[in-house]
Structures are given as C-alpha cells and as structure tokens.
Amino acid sequence: MSAELRETPLTNEHRSLGARLVPFAGWRMPVQYEGIKKEHEAVRTRAGLFDVSHMGEILVEGPQAVAEVDRLVTNDVSKLDVGSALYTVCCNEAGFILDDLIVYRLADEKVLVVCNASNRDKIVAHFADNLSLGTPWNDVSDAWAILALQGPRAVAIMKEIGAPPSVLELPSFHVTRARLAGVDLWTARTGYTGEDGFELFCASEDAVTLWRALLEAGQSYGLQPVGLGARDTLRLEARLTLYGNDITEETHPLEAGLG
C-alpha cells in the first residue's frame, strides 16, 4: 500500500479553484489550474501565485549559527549581512550534491535554510548529524507555509495589499520582516521563475488568509494561481536547476556549473 500523500494548508483552496492535484515528492500538489501555457504566460506578462509550502525549512540559531551553516554548504554564508540571502548547494563527504538550497540570514544569530521537498528528510538528517553539539536548530517545515508571488506586476500587487517601502524596495536576494493582510511573515525577494517577485514565509495557520488576500489584491492586475507544471517550464526557460533532473547525488557542483 502506498504512503498517504501529505497536503499543504492550501489544498482545499486549490480544490475550490479547480486545480488538478497530483502526487509530487510525497505531497498532493496542484500541477495546473487553467493550463500550463496560460499560467506560464501569466507569470511572464502579469503575475502568478504559487503554493510552495511543501518545501523544507531548517532554522539554525545561536552565536555559531552562521559559522555552522557556512561549514555545511559550498557558498560563503559568513559574508551575508543580516537581511540577505544566497543560493548554494550542500554536499556529502565525497563532494557530490545532496541538495541545492537558499540560505537567508534573518538576524545576527538566526539563519534559515530552505531545501527541496524531495530532499527534506535527507537534509534534515544531514544537519542533525553534522551540526555541532549544542547548536540550536529546528525543522520548521510543518509550522511554516511559503507562498511565491512572481511576475512583472508582483510589486504593484504587494503595494495593493499594503506592503511598506521596506518590502517594495527590497533588493534581490534580501529578506525582511513584515505584516501583510494582518499576517506576520518574512518577505524575501527570491523566486524560481526567472521573474521578479517575492516569497512569503508565514505560519501554516495564516496561509489561507494570505493566499486569499493576495488573489483579491491581484485580481485587477491579472494575477493567476499557478501550479507545478508552469513552475517547471518557467524555471527551465530561465535555466534554473532542478534537483533530481539536472543535478543529483551523482553530480559534482563544478560539473553542474555551480562552482
């Protein structure tokens, strides 16, 4: 008997919007709503809203948080200012890729590591085995949801929902604390589409409120919910790497062009 699929806090929202739900990395996820081509075009010309709450998140804290994460990834976390982020990979002892990650420095002693849903258990186990004893860390994947607002009208939609200048003027690969639609969250100027946009990290219980508020705010801007199908075509068009397809545990970062 196959294992029961996990669901994000927004699964019922996807059903109500007529999404086609499919198994993905152990989750029941929307692959499309109106069609991959239409959703792809929406992100390239207007804006799209993605549920990426299946991704994994590890929070590392304490005086050694930056040094500890820096030791486990290939890019230089020690150079991150508070409020900035970087793309990197995590390797095994032989130097092959366990996963590609985005690392955010949320505070002096707080680092957020975001990994792929398919590798969450592997990366959590790797961090558990390799973080120094006494380093405070937590797998917050189940407690947090992530919504991605992507496209050339993303900034206008964020302004419509009441985002302050600190969010609207956030540079690429930076992150800040904010409150939108009554929801406390982290807002990052990151994404996986090749377009400008934001990724919003909130408590799981606030995901529906934020999702509905963004769709309402974006209605006049042509905002559409977008599934994993267009997410894949968008990232492919933008030449963004997909773990399990372009890179695996048999790939070295240098041969993947991730030196």
Task: Give a description of the structure.
The chain is α+β, with helices and mostly antiparallel strands and 259 residues long. The chain folds into two domains: 6-55 and 142-237, 2-Layer Sandwich (Gyrase A, domain 2); 56-139, Alpha-Beta Plaits. Helix content is 26%, strand content 31%. It has helices at 11-16, 36-45, 65-72, 120-130, 154-160, 165-168, 207-217, 228-237; strands at 6-7, 20-24, 27-32, 47-51, 56-61, 85-91, 97-107, 110-115, 137-139, 144-150, 175-180, 183-188, 197-203, 223-225. Helix 2 (36-45) crosses helix 8. The chain is globular and about 50 Å long.
How far apart are the termini? 42 Å
Poorly predicted parts: none
Shape: globular
Order of helices and strands: EHEEHEEHEEEHEEHHEEEHEH
- What would CATH call the homologous superfamily of the largest domain? Probable tRNA modification gtpase trme, domain 1
Strands of the widest sheet, in order across it, are: 11-12-13-10-4-14
Q: Please describe the biggest sheet, giving its number of strands, its sense, and whether it closes into a barrel.
A: 6 strands, mixed
* Global Rg: 18 Å
Helical run tally: 8
CATH class term of the largest domain:
Alpha Beta
Q: Which terms summarize this structure?
A:
8 helices; 14 strands; alpha+beta; six-stranded mixed beta sheet; single chain; Gyrase A, domain 2; 26% helix; five-stranded antiparallel beta sheet; 2 domains; Alpha-Beta Plaits; 259 residues
How are the secondary structure elements laid out?
Blueprint: E1 6-7, H1 11-16, E2 20-24, E3 27-32, H2 36-45, E4 47-51, E5 56-61, H3 65-72, E6 85-91, E7 97-107, E8 110-115, H4 120-130, E9 137-139, E10 144-150, H5 154-160, H6 165-168, E11 175-180, E12 183-188, E13 197-203, H7 207-217, E14 223-225, H8 228-237
Parallel strand pairs: 1-3, 4-14
Antiparallel strand pairs: 2-3, 4-10, 5-8, 5-9, 6-7, 7-8, 10-13, 11-12, 12-13
